[in-house]
Design brief:
The chain is mainly α. It folds into two domains: 325 residues, no CATH class; 110 residues, no CATH class. It is built from 24 helices and six strands. The protein has a four-stranded mixed sheet with strand order 3-4-6-5, covered by helices on one side. The protein has a two-stranded parallel ribbon with strand order 1-2. Helix 4 packs parallel to helix 6, helix 5 packs antiparallel against helix 19 and helix 16 packs across helix 18. The protein is elongated and about 80 Å long. The protein starts with 5 loop residues before the first helix and ends with a strand. About 1% of the residues have low confidence.
Amino acid sequence: MKYIKIEYLLPALITVVYMVTIISSFVCWYGSNDNIAILRNIQSGCMVSFMSALMGRILSFCYLNISDVVPWYGLTLYALLGIGLYLNLLSIWKLIPHKLLSAAFLVMFLALSLRHIVSIDYSAVSIILASGSIIALLIYLEKTREIHILPVIFLGVCFSFSYLIRTHGIMAALCFAFPVVLTGVFKERKNYHRFLIFIIPLILTISTNSVYRNLSESESDRYFRKWNALRGQFHEFPVQRLNLENEDIRNVNNWSQNDYFMLCDFIYLDENKFNIDTLKNVFRYSVSYFNTSGKFISPPAKSELIQFFKSYPFYIAALFFVALYGFMIRYKRERLIIIVYLAFILGGAMWMQLFFRFPARIGSPILLNCIASMVYMIWNNENIQAEAKNTKKHQVIFAMIFLFFACVVFYNSYTNNLNRILVQKNSYNSMKELEEIQSDFFLILPRWEFFHFLSPLKNHKYSFKTIPCGWPIYSPLFYKALRENGMNHAYELLPKMAQNKNSYIVANNESINLISQYLKETFHIHIKVVQVKQLSNHLIVFRIEAI
């Protein structure tokens, strides 16, 4: 009780009440089908990708040894998200000295964080938790006279959990918070040992995870991890779209145009065509934005930049509102810092959009935490309180702006969630419809995976069998499913399905055409495609028959 004060309890209470209210009032689902792949692996005790091996083993133990009814994975994500939001709210509450403005900003921040509660994703949770830990540490060191070691260790443990849940989440958080970290470390440079205490849990976590992974990993596990790390650089990246007509890639890999389209569609069902060597060739012979046109900004690059501003209008607007307020109340030299940091955020985000990937499940938590970081850059100076005494008019005006903006975000989130009600209902109905079909197994193509629309706080069990497709190729779970159906290699799957009338493919017409062309080109098998049933979510159950 020595360290517990009202200023710590109030943000915690707000976080808990807010999350419980949103979860009980809105339709919640997983933010991407990657979460379903992770869930299937940990439920089977198999290795997971991207999530740390140690966290995967802990969750597997919970499912296999404690209870397979409790949704451990969903509960873990929500618990860590709650801690991350709490640390951000606590930081904002302690930073902004004017309670009206602070309360209005908290409401806006909560409104922007709503999408991460209703659409929970391991990447977003990791980024929010890491960024919240960093800012909370800097504020604790600056605002607290008597520094105790336990709060610093607690924040270090939170930072470590960010690594456990998504190994790359810390890097994303640190990259966009680099000016904040640099500012805080410079101010506390005389007490550098406190930062060492903060980092110790992370060092121990990384070491333990590495030792466990090296001891428990088989050669096939290691290949799967390397394959998935390389594949992750292709999935959703511009390189995928820029090389649709690249003949050099097709020639060196001995691919047809259909094979490249299968790669884009995540249909990796042939180890001879889709492996580490062929993926390396994709990057080796790839074109870039700047040699697809004589202009510096080519049409594909312009399209990506336009997409960036369309994807994050609320986050970009919030950044500008906060920066504008800071610009109005700071001195000229400090205004320059705000402008430079805003340019750093937007420039870094657009660079990610152009050359890497910046999907909403990664971009929105990064920009959300950049908003909190902007608050730190504005209010981390103690002299700001003296300056702000003469800006009561500005405080009221911007408090009203923040509240109005929050209302707009809440309304937009509510209307979008209404559409998700039907999507989730159709997903549940589609599961029931698949259970009605007598089958040996279903092959659900990854682009049309619909299980992530189900609630993260329910344990969904179904009687039909599926073979995990897409990036799980080379995973132990994938080959386990193949062996259960009398196969040892991925390239055996589609030819066998053409001979088995009790196996089905769940996809759309475009994907089934790719499969038909693949069988014709690779195995000289001509097939007849039979449409068995259209599911409630508009996907189609197909059966393929060799002619």
